[in-house]
Amino acid sequence: MDEADEKLQHSGPLLSESASPSPFRRRDFALFWTAGAVDGLGTCASSLFLPLILLGAGHPAGLAGLVASVALVSGLVVSPVAGVYADRLPRKPMMYLAALVAAGAMGSVFVTVALGHVVLVHVLAAAVVEQAASATYGAAASGTIRRLVPPEGYSRAIGYLQARDQAVQIVGPTLGGVLFQLARWVPLLADAVSFLLVAALSKAIRTDLVPAPPGRTDRTDPAPSFGRDLAEGLRFVSAEPFLRFVVVWTAGINALLGALYFHAVFTSQARGASPSSIGLVLTLAGVGGLLGALAAPWLVRRLRAAPIVTGASWAMVPTAAGLAFTSRTWAYGLLLGGVSLIVPSVVVVLQTRAMLVTPDRLLARMGTVLGTAGQAVAVLAPVTAGVLVAAYGGRAVALGCAGAFAGLALYATARAGLMAGGAE
């Protein structure tokens, strides 16, 4: 019986037992958590305002948007590739070297902007390199939690990571705006410095993050190859019923949440809402996500996994439908905040069990496959929401999203047995 199988037998109690001591009592988890917070703040401070820098240099809006889109796609392309190497190579060096590469890329843009020589090709190349390096860091980081905390602490640690990311989404844009007001190059400098801090924090981690060996038993087994290792990760996810469920549920939720957010923005703008009012919508949604992430470990310790996933899935249906029958911006914010409040508990359940069913040597590949599937669908949300709102109106889009949420809820109910390790 391997490590994953042994932990899987105990996955039910691990999600409901009393909490272990706070993960922050573990030095290396605190370093890892802080590195992610610094990384997120720096990225938010620069990425939202990089298009404004290009616009200020005289480039059209279409090109500025293209730079942002190409950079995001490059991260999606690199992520599965990085996952293969993160399951082969020591993960800690990958983390801090990737952060140093990202620091160099954003530092070069800072220098050119500060000197007043903004070149579109250079900004595009730097943005692509930064996203690729961030994807590499993320792939290596996805295999660390199992080493940094014991199994009984997984749900609490994941909840803290969720809360960190939600807090960054709330604070980051405001911080970036303040820095941009000082000078347009200041957010870029902050991003470059943040990557240097991430590299230092990652290097300071003492825990052994070298992935487990593949455990070959036959001397005639072929030597590892990139294509074979990539296919192995894809096969593992597709062959594991629970991970297949996670792919479908996560991709669906990411697409629907993205569509709802942009539906609220486009509909509010069409009704004449001010930019500050629209910002309030996203702020309330972010606060809901933060509160949900903070409450998720407490909830997971008290309820079984299946009721959390199915209950949350069904609760999103009336919340999404409510968006079709309101015309006030603050109500949009409260309803989106309600959806955001629900999601983190499910994420904690799914990510915890995903770690339990995955061998250490496949953790990075599993994480990048799940992450890429969810992000790839979410990339289409803005344009899809814009087209649908323009063609059918905000009410029809909201009701359509509610119907899709109901479909996901039915799927989650039918697969509830997977949450407790049942058969497919």
Instruction: Give the count of helical stretches.
Output: 18
Beta content comes to under 5%
Report, as a whole number of angstroms, the end-to-end distance. Answer: 21 Å
> What percent of residues adopt helix (DSSP H or I)?
over 70%
Main sheet record:
none
Mean pLDDT: 82
3D shape? globular
What ranges have pLDDT less than 50 throughout 5 or more consecutive residues? Answer: 1-19, 216-220
- What Rg is obtained from the alpha carbons, in whole angstroms? 22 Å
Structural class: mainly alpha
Report the count of strand segments: 0
Give me the strand/helix succession. Answer: HHHHHHHHHHHHHHHHHH
Describe the structure.
The protein is mainly alpha-helical and 424 residues long. Helix content is 78%, strand content 0%. It contains 18 helices and no strands.
Which helices and strands occur, and which strands form pairs?
Blueprint: H1 3-9, H2 11-14, H3 27-47, H4 50-56, H5 61-86, H6 91-115, H7 120-141, H8 145-148, H9 154-182, H10 186-203, H11 226-239, H12 241-270, H13 275-302, H14 305-322, H15 329-357, H16 363-379, H17 381-392, H18 394-414
Helix pairs in contact: 1-15, 3-9, 3-10, 4-5, 5-7, 5-11, 5-16, 6-7, 6-10, 7-16, 9-13, 9-15, 11-16, 12-13, 12-15, 12-16, 12-17, 12-18, 13-15, 14-15, 14-18, 17-18
Short descriptors:
424 residues, mainly alpha, 78% helix, disordered N terminus
Brief account:
This protein is mostly helical and 424 residues long.
